[in-house]
Amino acid sequence: MKMSETTMNPPSDDQCVTKVNGTSNEVCNGVKERDPTPTTTTTAITAPLLNGFHNNNNINNNAMNGWTPSAPFVPSNSLPIQPILNANSFVPKGLVPLPTGTVPGSGLSLKRPNRFNCSPRSRGGSPNNQGPVGPPPPPPPPLPTLTPGQHVVHLHVNPGESISLQMGNDLQLIQGPATVRMVSNNSSPPIPMPVQVPPGHMVQQIVDETGTLRHVILSPQPPMAVSMGPPPNFGPGPAPSTGPPTNPPFYTYHPAYTHPVSAQYHPHGPLPPPPPPHHMTHQLHSHGPSPHPHLHQHQGSPPPTLHPLLHLDDRAQRQYNKMKRKLDARQRENQAVCHTSTPTSPKKQNGIKKYKDRNTSTSGLDESDRSQEDDEEARALTELLSNVCAPQVSQLTARSAFLQWKPPNMYSDSGENKYSEYDIQESEFVYEVLISDRGKEGKYRVVHSLGGLEYILKDLKPAKEYHVCIQALLDDLRGQPSDVAMFKTLSCEPDPPSPPKLVNRTKTSLTLKWNTVADNGSKLTAFVLESDESKGGSHFQEIFSGIQKQYRVIKLTLSTLYRFRLAAVNEMGKSGYSEVVSYSTSGSVPSQPSPPQLKEAFINRLHLEWEERPNDDSYTLQMDDALSGHGFLPVFDGPENNYLTCGLLRNTEYFFRLRANNEEGSSLWSETVVYRTLPEKPDPPSRPLLKGRAHSTSFKVSWDPPKDTGGADIMSYTLQMDSGNGFEDRCVRQDNEYNCERLLPGQLYRFRVSCTGPGGCSGFSEVGTISTVPVCPGQCSPPRLHGKAKAISVHLKWGPPEKDGGSPVTEYEVNVTNPDSSSRLAYRGRETECVVAGLLPGKNYQFRVRAYNKVGDGEWSDPLNVTSKPGPPSPPNEPQVTCKSPHVVVVSWEEPNCNGAPITEYRLETVQKDSDFSQTHSLSGLTHDVKGLSPATHYCFRVQAVNSAGCSSFSPSVSLVTPPSFPAAIPSSTIRVTCEPYSLTLCWSAPNANGSDIVAYNIDLGDKHNPVSINGDICEHRIEGLPPETTFRIRIQAVNGVGVGPFSSLIKTSTKALPPLPPKLDCAVVSHNSLRLRWGEGRNVDLTQYTLEMETRNGCFVPIYQGTSLFYKVGKLSETTEYRFRIVASNDAGRGPHSEVYAFSTSKASPPITKVTRVMNVTETSAVVEWQAIRPFGDDRLLYQLQLLNSRNQENCLLYKGSATSFEIQDLEPKVEYTVRVSAIRECCDGTGCLVGSFGPSVTFVTLCKEVPKVEVTDEVSVSQSCENKQLTDQQWAVVILCGFTLFAVLVAVLIQNVIAYSKGTS
After folding, report:
1. Could you tell me where the beta strands, DSSP code E, fall in 158-270?
2. Is pLDDT at 1102 greater than 90 in this prediction?
């Protein structure tokens, strides 16, 4: 929560009313006339209290606007509010606790009892004068639930205070301590507002972090000079105080801290913890005198000391002191207004922000000291703001300029901040740009106010002299304007002129006149008049160019429209064109036009058009409606050559005539023509209905004519019929009935009809439905066999009859004729397919089908002859199994019963244990050899017989375990070889043992080496004692109890070579900060890795390079220092030994390149050359030498050698180009000699003529113009020679190309 600052306004005369014993006394200027022995003082609060109570334009408006108190004062659609009272609150019998609000003139008042003579109605007071305590109050009512958009504000009343709310004749009272909950229905949250309170009281407004008002506290004004005592007692018992007994307030008001309230006063928990001091509320005191003499304190006394438990930061303390001084100043001003006949106000502070409060606290100063300090601060800051330099003007154009300026200088010549005590940053300054276009002493206007240091002036006048200055601001302080900077904008082309005006016109000429235009700083040279020559479009042609402002255009065509535009020209260019204007020449009265023609006729409109002639400006069209009897009336007058007449009657004749108009007059009326509107299409006829009785194949349909025929007779009727495929035209007739024949029985038909008249075809009528009478279904098609016939059943399918008789088929019957000519009903149902079972294999059967509908049964279909098929054979018996070897098994079985068809094949399936059977062989015999089996494996076998009828069931399965065998070969992919210079390590995966455990492995190393045997099932072996760099062909075989397995695939491998020896290390290049080292001989073909190590200061070697290169440059070294190195080589065989330690030393550094910074004070015979100084090299001495080159005689001479960084050259020739350059020399103090650096870049300058003033030349080349032509330098001659050689080469190349082309052509 944070506190919001509020301001106090002095009460008006009608606001200061005191009620004493039922009487009211007027109070002038906020001073009350007190009764000697008052018992109760009630003062109305007549200022807005909450955001929902006020109108920003009128501070004394109704304060309850948008707020909801308790039930008797609830507006419509609002939520009632109940007050929240503590356990010690007292509510008189029959009164309802109400929330408080400040309603001017509506009865809301703050009642405060007399502290020295307590009334029986007042409660609390001194602990020594406690009155009888009434019964405990009832528990507070439950709080209502807030709806979205509502806001809650708590109003707190201290002990000894009471709030009364008066509406009409009813008065309700709330005594403190109490907290009242108020709800606002406004959409916007409540915010703090200025509040006026009775004398001796103050208001605190507490807001949350979003600025929304949450708490309002009304309390008596505490003495300002009373120091803080023990913490107040918020309980019901007496306060632990050693002074005179007083009733502690509900809230204590420390100037910098507000104590939290005990939880007993808040049923919903205590208030939130107090905010930091810079968010605390401002205590608002009354403008009148205090009601108690001991409360009158000296206004200039220091504020009370801070609470000992409160720790405030410096910024919060400064903010509090600042707000405290503002409040004291306002109180003194208000008291001066109330206690003096002539209102006086304290010295205006000019809105000065107390920047000094940021660093120091002035709470202990009296009024005069603070006023003097504020004046000094204002004078110092004003002096700072006035210290602004004139702005710099650049980038001038005709209508804009770029301004730049520097902020006020806050530093002294020694670099010390003179205004450090005010804690001001340059970013806090605001600058106003002032400009005047009427001289330096003219009136200045502010064109912009901003916080930056640059601004672009726009919308300036060309060739105009302007004066501009800058004025700095800091809050409400304003400095003096800076010096004035004068600039003049550039000239530009003239402004676009106004369009030319018509002065006179004839049939062949137009006289135009125009006004002059602003020249924008350059004298006008001509006006350019252009015309489109009556061609239209955007093409204009110049017809006049001169300084005159009038021109007569001649040789024009009569009654012709011409367009013109104008432009102005000065020395800077041509302006934009004016707006295009159109003028026409004079003509004659138009001739009689042709009558209007009918372009298109409609039902209630006629679209007319007529011939458009060039001499006609407008046309007048008149129409005569014979039915109205008014004669011809104008319906159109305009330049268009067509008109659409609307609002006419259908199928009616109208008379028209036309007249042409121009500026010379009107023509005769054209001949009268008559045109008729079209008739309207008729309405749809009535719905078609059945006429008479419907038959199975025909019926008669009729309909009624439409009610509205569209103003004409019906020409024909169109009948459409929908038989299931959409509506189709059935007939076109003039009468209104039709006999429909050749229809289908039991079919539903839909009909609709439309009529056609002169106005068009009407819409279709409503749809009518008629059905024919149904009959029995027709004959079904013969049934067909679905799939192949089986031995005991057949699957039949059939289709519905072609004609269902107009009624859907309900069921079908299937009849079967047996081989003995007997018949039976095999199926009856709705489906069109069935399976007939109970047949004998290989027999002939006949099948017929018929359909049924609601009328009856149809005819039997033609018969279908089917022969049943034979059945599959019986399952074979259990097969016999015999082992030939671990990989081959013989399986045999007996022939089963074929069931009417010979057996064509046998299917033998084999499977290992715990797997699914799979077909392995299709056989024709009764025995089979199964090959490719695994040794010592469990197998199962079964057999199935097959004939033309199908497959039999499988025979019972028989199982067998094959005998074991020698081990399998070791996969070469599993063999891994690890090579060393003297050994090989082999790893492999164990092969399949084939039913017998592996007992040994044999390793063959090749023809020249003895084989190795390993006993046991071990899959890893290391072979020692092998020669380095030797190739071996390795293969491995396994051995078990059955025998020796096959060898694995051949693997070729070699032992590794020995690690390399370290090379010799040499230093190839030595410099002052690097060493280039090299080693080895020739090229590194074997890609040997080298690691170069350097010794550190602690004696350890660290690697600085690792790679295959044979050299390395060590950088970032110190000069004349010894460094120690060693190297080691490594390859695939490993890392070799370190080399011996090599020591190399760096050399001394030559001085760097010296650069000439500038050549200045150039005269006819002398010049001063300056160059940059370089950093010294320890105790060594640095010298500089200066060389001069004369471009006239190409002489190079040494002019100076010394330690200075500038030299004046004398005895120079005038009008001669010279080139100077400088180099540095290092004199070594150890006697090793001098080191001369390279010369820096050359700088060229030219001595002056006698008439040319001095020119300063910077480090970029700045050269004065010579009085006569200069001789070419060496560089210029080189460029000329290069260009000539290039041109010669191009010519030679072209000549050679032509020769080659010519030779090819001749050949």
Report:
1. 162-167, 170-175, 178-184, 201-207, 213-220, 253-254, 257-258
2. yes
Give the mean pLDDT of the chain. 76
SS3 for 356? helix
Q: Is the pLDDT of residue 37 over 50?
A: no
* pLDDT attached to residue 632: 92
Contacts of 1071 (CB under 8 A, 6+ apart): 1146, 1147
Distance CA 472, CA 451 (A): 9
Give, as one character, the DSSP assignment of residue 1300. H
Specify the DSSP class assigned to residue 398: S
For residue 1265, what pLDDT band results from cuts at 50, 70 and 90?
very low
CA pair distance 876, 442, nearest whole angstrom: 131
Q: How far apart are CA 1125 and CA 1118, in angstroms?
A: 16
Q: What are phi and psi of 1279, to 5 degrees?
A: -65, -40
DSSP string, 808-850: ---EEEEEEE-TTS-EEEEEEES-SEEEEE-PPTT-EEEEEEE
Q: Which long-range contacts (CB under 8 A, 24 or more apart) does 1162-1165 make?
A: 1162/1245, 1162/1246, 1162/1247, 1162/1248, 1162/1254, 1162/1255, 1162/1256, 1162/1257, 1162/1264, 1163/1247, 1163/1248, 1163/1254, 1164/1212, 1164/1214, 1164/1247, 1164/1248, 1164/1249, 1164/1250, 1165/1210, 1165/1211, 1165/1212, 1165/1213, 1165/1214, 1165/1247
Answer yes or no: are the C-beta atoms of 49 and 109 closer than 8 Å: no
Is 70 exceeded by the pLDDT of residue 268? no
Secondary structure (DSSP) of 53-97: G-BTTBTTS-TTTTEE-SGGGPPTT-----EEE-TT----TT---
pLDDT at 719 over 50: yes
Residue 1013 is encoded by which pair of tokens? 């045997």
179 and 84 in contact (C-beta within 8 Å)?
yes
CA separation for the pair 1046, 242 (Å, rounded): 115
Strand order in 1255-1257's β-sheet?
A: 1206-1209, 1167-1171, 1156-1162, 1255-1257
Tell the residue number behind the tokens 């479009």, with chain if given. Answer: 537
The pLDDT of residue 1296 is above 80: yes
- Helix, strand, or coil (residue 295): helix
Please say whether the beta carbons of 813 and 828 come within 8 A.
Answer: yes
- Model confidence at 99, pLDDT cuts 50, 70, 90, reads very low
pLDDT greater at residue 149 or residue 644? 644
- What angle in degrees, to the nearest 10, is found between the helix axes of 367-385 and 314-339? 110
Q: What does the pLDDT look like over 940-962, one tens digit per residue?
A: 889 999 988 888 888 898 888 88
What percent of the chain clears pLDDT 90, i.e. is strictly above it?
Answer: 27
Q: What is the pLDDT of residues 752-765, one digit of tens each?
A: 999 998 888 999 99
pLDDT band at 273 (very low <50, low <70, confident <90, very high): very low
**Minimal CA–CA distance to 995: which of 1042, 1030, 950?**
1042
Q: Which residues does 206 contact at the CB level (< 8 Å), separation at least 6?
A: 1, 3, 4, 213, 214, 215, 216, 217, 258, 281
Query: What pTM value is reported for the model?
Result: 0.30
- Which range, 247-251, 467-471, 705-709, is most confident? 467-471
- Count other C-beta atoms under 10 Å from residue 90's C-beta: 18
Q: What is the DSSP string of 864-890?
A: EEEEPPPPPPPPP-PPEEEEEETTEEE
CB-based contacts of 950: which residues, under 8 Å, 6+ apart? 871, 872
Cβ neighbours of residue 109 closer than 8 Å, sequence gap 6 or more? 42, 43, 44, 45, 163, 164, 166
Alpha-carbon distance values, 930 to 780, 885, 934, 961, 1111 (Å): 58, 11, 11, 13, 73
